[in-house]
Design a protein that fits this description.
Elements lengths: L1 H30 L10 E4 L14 H13 L3 E3 L1 H6 L11 E7 L4 H13 L4 E4 L14 H9 L3 E4 L16 H23 L5 E3 L7 H9 L4 E3 L18 E2 L6 H9 L1 E2 L3 E4 L4 E3 L5 E4 L7 E6 L2 E6 L6 E3 L8 E10 L5 E10 L1
Parallel strand pairs: 1-3, 1-8, 2-3, 3-4, 4-5, 6-7, 9-17, 11-17
Antiparallel strand pairs: 10-12, 12-15, 13-14, 13-16, 16-17
The chain binds zinc ion.
């Protein structure tokens, strides 16, 4: 009798312990999303003007459509600085953050963007290159305008001094002269903004997104704490702050494309070749793994070339669709969907010399 009774008690105790665990596991499984950290999409806009002349120009009405979408779908805009500073404490992040950035210091950022952001109660980040910022200008922002925007909660950060392709070395430039020019591009712009606005500059956005390891080293020596590329994709709070992703917005994007940009999670890519921001002189056979990703087919895009590729028997994705390359910086963009058809995306770049 004693044995049966103690067995019944044991089973009872086990049930008491296991049942709540079972319930809580079920809760996580049912709500799924709770277990996932928030993703941080960073959007890049350029000029916001009435008469658009390039795919990167937005009319004020088109920008407002995006702001309305952001408001109506529960997103909370934060600045790029708030994003970088909350990476160590992701619990500080809103559940659906988004970062609105505006590059190149165009006058329309004061006349059109700033009033629109204020109308919605949003903050934005303005990456400016300092050679074009003056005391008076018809086309570009002035220091007075930037001071006013900063005081009103806008975030002003660096985009170099003269907006060059940082990876390009001039024909007769020595390595030492190039290094000196790089340092000046990254350091002088930071110091000029800090002096003019009396506010520390902690972030850098690479012009055109072109960079390599040695440029990154110079940027860190200049004191930047967060560096933004234009590699496609969204950022997890655990992302590498030296290579944060941003997506350049184009005025022809559909509402569905915009929605995907805001919601696609980072594809967990393990790059095999070519390495991220590497320099190569032969058209590469692209190779990577996506460990733990549920589906076996992804789409790969490099400039205008798009292909669907499948995982091979070694678990590797291989693509040799690049043949003749001209010198420049190339982005490799990989997109996929999980079994629930949710979009995933990731990208990295290489320089072909
Ligand atoms: Zn730019």
């Amino acid at each position: 009798m004693g044995l049966i009774r103690s067995t019944i008690i044991k089973v009872f105790i086990i049930l008491i312990i296991v049942f709540p665990v079972f319930i809580s596991l079920k809760t996580v499984a049912e709500t799924g999303a709770e277990a996932e950290p928030p993703i941080i999409p960073v959007l890049v806009y350029h000029r916001v003007i009435s008469k658009v002349t390039s795919i990167y120009d937005f009319t004020p009405e088109q920008l407002e459509e995006h702001l309305k979408y952001i408001r109506d779908n529960g997103y909370t805009p934060i600045t790029a600085l708030q994003m970088v500073e909350s990476m160590d404490n992701p619990e500080q992040l809103p559940s659906k953050p988004v970062v609105l950035t505006f590059d190149d210091g165009h006058k329309s950022h004061y006349s059109n963007v700033y009033p629109l952001l204020k109308k919605y109660g949003y903050q934005g980040t303005f990456f400016v290159y300092t050679d074009v910022i003056a005391e008076k200008s018809e086309k570009q922002l002035t220091w007075d305008e930037l001071r006013e925007m900063l005081q009103d909660g806008m975030d002003i950060q660096a985009h170099t001094k003269s907006h060059p392709y940082l990876t390009k070395i001039s024909k007769h430039e020595t390595e030492a002269a190039y290094q000196k020019r790089l340092t000046n591009e990254l350091q002088a712009s930071k110091l000029v903004i800090e002096e003019q606005l009396q506010e520390e500059v902690k972030l850098l956005a690479y012009p055109y997104g072109w960079f390599n390891q040695s440029i990154e080293n110079v940027a860190f020596r200049a004191g930047y704490r967060g560096i933004f590329t234009v590699n496609w994709g969204t950022n997890l709070p655990s992302a590498d702050c030296s290579r944060l992703k941003r997506r350049v917005m184009e005025n022809k994007m559909t509402k569905e494309e915009f929605e995907t940009i805001l919601t696609a999670r980072p594809l967990p890519i393990e790059i095999i070749y070519p390495e991220d921001a590497g320099i190569i002189n032969k058209a590469p056979e692209i190779q990577f793994k996506i460990p733990g990703f549920a589906t076996d087919k992804v789409e790969i895009k490099v400039r205008s070339l798009v292909a669907e590729i499948a995982r091979n028997e070694d678990g590797v994705f291989v693509w040799s669709g690049l043949q003749k390359l001209t010198p420049g910086y190339y982005l490799i963009i990989v997109k996929g969907h999980d079994h629930e058809n949710r979009p995933f995306i990731n990208s990295w770049g290489f320089e072909y010399r």
